[in-house]
Amino acid sequence: MTCSWTDFLSSQLPPGPYRIDGQCPLVAPSPLFTHYYHLPLPNRQQVNRQNLLEALSAGLAFPEYFGKNWDAAFDCLTDQPWTAGSIVVIVLPIAKELEVDEHALISLLEVIEDAASFWLAEQVRLYFLIDTKRDDSASLRGIPQLGLTGRKKQGGEPIPEEKVSPSTFVGQGKPRRKPMDQKKIVLAIDESEHARLVVDSAIEYAKLLHAEVILVYCHRKFPTLLGEPYRGNEIASIIREAENLVAPYIAQLKKENIPVEERLMEEPAGSMITDIARIEQCDLIIMGSRGLTNLASLIVGSVTNRVLQTAPCSVLVVR
């Protein structure tokens, strides 16, 4: 006999990550919990950083400006519309044959533990269940196995419920995760020659602050009225142009040993820049005094003005 969700939820286990081995009835969500999420990995061959972040983003409907890093994942996990008294269950299946990046899995578990600790203070119980039968992963062995009371071996002997020390879990006074491990700068560029000066300034400030740079370029909107395959071809062309435009700046930043991530976003640029700065909890936005839009009809500098009015942090305008 396998455990029911009633057995699980009535046990009052502390929130956080657990292992299960496929014995629990996870196919259909239960009315006993408030929110249920299933996170299928996008690439069924590997369990790595990119796939884990994409699974979180898709399964929990993160915003389109999600930064695809662990700090941003924590921010999005703690910005969910869960209310006091909610029970949240997130299930991540990991097949036994998949190649596992241990470092990425450990980072995921740390984020989940910190998010569970945060939500516990808000009277929300967050359970992250890794559905797997593999026993060759050190990071998976480090989290508790969900005991299945009443299950029997082939010989008929009952399997005792696993005893787990409460100190294993979150919610025992652990401080909330600091969502930003280092300074961050949003570097907003356009297709003008002036962008070179903006990048040079960003390099100076990144070195001074020992900061990571998030390079943002807002390309023109994807077409909506074209039929296939023309629409797909046009979208591919827009993305290719954007990648070619930012490539030399990415290379320049990496040459200076500055950590950098790129964000290729659709217009409107003004709101995208401030949204990224907000979700990534950046310390500074660096941008030019003009440009940053492909719509020539707009007044020059209007994007800069919008960012100055709505930015959640300091803004450096390079002239």
Number of helices: 9
pLDDT under 50 segments (min length 5)?
148-180, 291-300
Question: Strands across the major sheet, in which order?
Answer: 9-8-7-10-11
Largest sheet: 5 strands, parallel
Percent of residues in β-strands: 15-25%
Global Rg: 23 Å
| Global structural class | alpha/beta
What is the number of strand segments?
A: 11
Mean pLDDT: 77
Q: CA-to-CA gap between the ends?
A: 71 Å
The proportion of residues forming helix, as a percent range, comes to 25-40%
How would you explain this protein's 3D organization?
The protein has helices spanning 5-10, 49-59, 70-77, 102-121, 138-141, 195-209, 230-255, 269-279, 302-310, and strands spanning 16-20, 35-38, 46-47, 87-93, 99-100, 125-131, 184-189, 212-219, 260-266, 284-288, 314-318. By secondary structure, the protein is α/β, with parallel strands linked by helices. The strands form three sheets. Strands 9-8-7-10-11 form a five-stranded parallel beta sheet, sandwiched between helices. The chain has a four-stranded parallel beta sheet with strand order 1-6-4-2. Strand 10 (284-288), helix 9 and strand 11 (314-318) form a beta-alpha-beta unit.
